[in-house]
């Protein structure tokens, strides 16, 4: 795998080409100071109960821009970085989902996610032409929240030379019996 191939899979690379056929998304470039905040482990609990935890840094300009984008997208969004969503931290959200209504909720999900470390630190690890340990720029994609979307009905489609060559279930950690029940419907596109 080449670094260029991995980089083409970033949402800010493919979204402009498919924006008319996919979920409405607003993309923000993240400042390096915010990335460092996400990577900083020093804010985790201290063994000394009397020692106060430091307050997280403030990002007023970024917060304002993101909150405005959330309003534009209907007041609820699904967040993801260049490649990955913080799906492993949905448990920390009061809804148990990745539905966010503010910059603070997004920040908590991103900060709590271990899966985002792949995007932040290891995305090029398997590239045979790796030139940099990580991308130069990171982006936060805010996708309009649709409560009617169900993970069991999300699929990845693979296209080569403008021909659909494969489809797979997007959420691979669960078995959804509804897919067996709807097999004929899904195969025929009804």
UniProtKB/TrEMBL annotation:
PANTHER family: CELL DIVISION CYCLE PROTEIN 123 HOMOLOG, D123 PROTEIN
Listed GO CC annotations: cytoplasm
Upper classification of the organism: Eukaryota, Viridiplantae, Streptophyta, Embryophyta, Tracheophyta
Source organism of the structure: Lactuca saligna
Alphabetical list of Pfam families matching this protein: D123
InterPro entries: CDC123 (IPR009772)
Family to which the UniProt record says this protein belongs: Belongs to the CDC123 family.
Protein known as: Cell division cycle protein 123 homolog
Region forming the signal peptide: none
